[in-house]
Amino acid sequence: MDSAQRRLKVLLVGTGALGSVYAWRLQTSGKVEITAVCRSNYAAVQQNGFLIQSAAFGTHTYRPTKIISSISNATGEIYDYVIVCTKALPNLGDNSDIIAPAVSPSTTIVLVQNGIGIEEPFARRYPQNPLGSAVAYIDASQPEQGIINHGHISAMTLGAYPPHSEHSARLTVLSEIWNQQGIPCTV
């Protein structure tokens, strides 16, 4: 496969309902390989994949390209993107270090987390890496490990951090794939 056909390598950190649906849509494009960090749901997802019951896209079993139990198992790969879909708790401390083993100089970091002002710790720790942040609109839940219920909503708005930076081009690549896969996404 030449570089024009090479699939993007994405590390997904946070495989709850939100992360699972967005990763599934990226991987179904055929343009992306997903390595999913599954912690509490590792055994269920390793055995069965994710059963995604979606009003928008139908019911599917989604198996990420690779399933790992911790970020320390993500070493040895160069990821084009690390997408962080964990809860942001900035009042409890800086959690930007959790992705450190997977970030290379060419990795774009995308935060799909709750909260305002969550970008600064990542910008300080990874000053040379493109950084984006998202506002996600999704109606999804994970009532059991590996079982995802998704309704009709799954839109997203991405923005470069700092605003108006040259990082928008890297975010546009993801946005185009999500749009092609039925996730309305703007940059």
TrEMBL record:
The protein's superkingdom reads Eukaryota
> What is the protein name stated in its UniProt record?
Uncharacterized protein
- Lineage of producing organism: Eukaryota, Fungi, Fungi incertae sedis, Zoopagomycota, Kickxellomycotina
